[in-house]
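Re-run requested by the PI after the first attempt was lost when the workstation crashed. Everything re-entered from the original request form. Ligand of interest: flavin mononucleotide.
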Amino acid sequence: MGCRDAANLRWGEELAELETTLLKRRSTRQFTGADLTLPELKQLLDFTYQPHHSIDQGLDRAPDYFDLTLIQTFIAISGVEGLEEGCYYYAPNAQELRQIRFKNFRRELHRLCLGQDLGRDAGAVVFHTADLRQAIAQYGDRVYRYLHMDAGHLGQRLNLAAIRLGLGVSGIGGFFDDEVNEVLGIPADEAVLYITTLGRPRR
Ligand SMILES: Cc1cc2nc3c(=O)[nH]c(=O)nc-3n(C[C@H](O)[C@H](O)[C@H](O)COP(=O)(O)O)c2cc1C
């Protein structure tokens, strides 16, 4: 699924809406379970992984990450109108979602997120992962810290984009590390760093 046709998320005159979004951002505590739309998902991904698309608004072309080539993005889709349920790999350079497993994972996501309803009721659950062995071989043990900071940065971009779109979002740090790969079909070498759930907020 190509994502190049995403509408560019707008942040208002002099980024006024960015300020408002930063001020009102909160982690959603409960999703309704209703679907997201495909254009919404594409906008979330575009803002998060294609920062160069926002430079006309005065945003940073190359935000300060440690090394994003170490981080992979997998997305479990349970409820996005127009997108088949399953687990996808997001290829940031090609801007494509590539399906790796076809299935509705709601029940499994509930368990993987330690029984948290946010995992079950989200329309999309984003997994940021890294090949720890490869990263440590390249940079040494301290990379473990930097990987989490980069994953957190990506998570915060997803948070801001979701709030701007009127969606719900919450980070999830509590999950069964070892089971995620097997269930979702994520390659065994990839360790999950951080999860972000996205859905329709219960207000
Ligand atoms: C790294 C990280 C992990 C988190 N893990 C969870 C989680 O497992 N379950 C949950 O309900 N919320 C989780 N949250 C959301 C926090 O509960 C929430 O961010 C915190 O209560 C502060 O609220 P705020 O985001 O509205 O400012 C996580 C947030 C972060 C940043």
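Saved to the shared folder this time. Helices lie at 16-24, 38-49, 106-112, 117-121, 132-139, 143-164, 177-184.
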